[in-house]
Amino acid sequence: MHLRDGAELAAVLPFTAQRFARAIVMPNLKPPVTTTAAALAYRDRILAALPAGLHFEPLMTLYLTDNTDPDEIDRAMASGQVSGCKLYPAGATTNSAAGVTDIRRIDAVLERMAERGMVLQVHGELTGDVDIFEREVRFIEAVLEPTVQRFPKLRIVFEHITTAAAVSYVHSARQGVGATLTPQHLLHNRNAIFAGGIRPHYYCLPILKTEADREALLDAATSGNPRFFLGTDSAPHSQTAKETSCGCAGMFSAHAGIELYAEAFDTVGRLNRLEGFAAHFGADFYRLPRNQDTLTLIKDNWSPPPSYAYGSGKIIPMRANESIQWRVSPS
Ligand code: DOR
């Protein structure tokens, strides 16, 4: 998920730290977090922004570029604080301009990651002149599957998958390939972006897909298959950056980062599968000890406020002024 930096970091971090003991923190800052030194400095800023009394472990990531030095992987492993390296295809999403222009340019880095056991996290969209609704499926064929084959030991998380095609790919992929699913892709289809008018707060990347895709994602998330686990991709942008002629991609869900999943699992009567998805499978994939604390969810409708403060502006949270069916018990 995205924590941003500075005053925006301070504004959004408590929402996540109140719900999760740790999270994988995306590196697409401006400038991006491309080195271990930058990741450690960012980690320090996150910990400094944590309100007293909250415990939270940021799991840092590096942003891969065409120029990433394979030795950086060794430095990252040695730090003990870097949980993965993120592949942003250049131009695919927010702050991805410095991303990788052709995956073959980072072969030496991927080789080193495979050797060292560093996880590759993937934003899975093919860039260029590709239909926005086809980018994920085209990425699987053009980039992901060839990479999975060429680096048989590389562990890969296909992040925020959005299509039935991605679900079936992950089911059939070799060992060491997992996927995360966001609350918005489990709960909404692409009609949400256009319901009665254009709704910028439902615009994220990869974009919401069809109802059949949503159903396949929900089925995978609630299947109990450990390849599929929680990853909110909560991505705050100020109201003014979203509500404009060329608005940013990203949905802010951290204020309800577990509650929305409870709602999704409840719709198919599979709340019994939520704990594995939310608390076990991701930890196991990343070879982290499972957390021992518990959190209690109550079925009780509430409405997120119209906005939250966000630096000098505001963020509009997912389901602002609408309702969410589950809440976290304060105890
Ligand atoms: O919608 C998105 N927003 N998708 C991403 O991959 C990046 C994110 C962001 O950083 O805003």
Q: What does it look like?
A:
There is one protein chain. The chain is α/β, with parallel strands linked by helices and 331 residues long. The protein has a single domain, classed as Alpha-Beta Barrel (TIM Barrel). Helix content is 34%, strand content 15%. It contains eleven helices and eleven strands. It has helices spanning 6-17, 36-49, 70-79, 107-116, 135-150, 164-172, 183-187, 211-221, 239-242, 259-267, 274-285; strands at residues 22-24, 57-63, 82-87, 119-123, 156-159, 177-181, 228-230, 297-302, 308-310, 313-315, 324-328. The strands form three sheets. Strands 1-2-3-4-5-6-7 form a seven-stranded parallel sheet. Strands 8-11 form a two-stranded antiparallel ribbon. Strands 9-10 form a two-stranded antiparallel sheet. The protein is globular. (4S)-2,6-dioxohexahydropyrimidine-4-carboxylic acid (DOR) binds next to loops.
Specify the number of helices: 11
Integer average pLDDT: 97
The order of strands across the largest sheet is: 1-2-3-4-5-6-7
Strand fraction band?
A: 15-25%
| Name of the level-1 CATH class | Alpha Beta
Shape type: globular
Please tally the β strands and state the result.
11
Distance between the termini: 25 Å
- Low-confidence segments, ≥5 residues, pLDDT <50? none
Output the helix-strand order. Answer: HEHEHEHEHEHEHHEHHHEEEE
CATH architecture designation = Alpha-Beta Barrel
C-alpha-based Rg, rounded = 18 Å
Let me know the largest β-sheet.
7 strands, parallel
Which fold does the CATH topology refer to? TIM Barrel
Full CATH superfamily name: Metal-dependent hydrolases
Structural class: alpha/beta
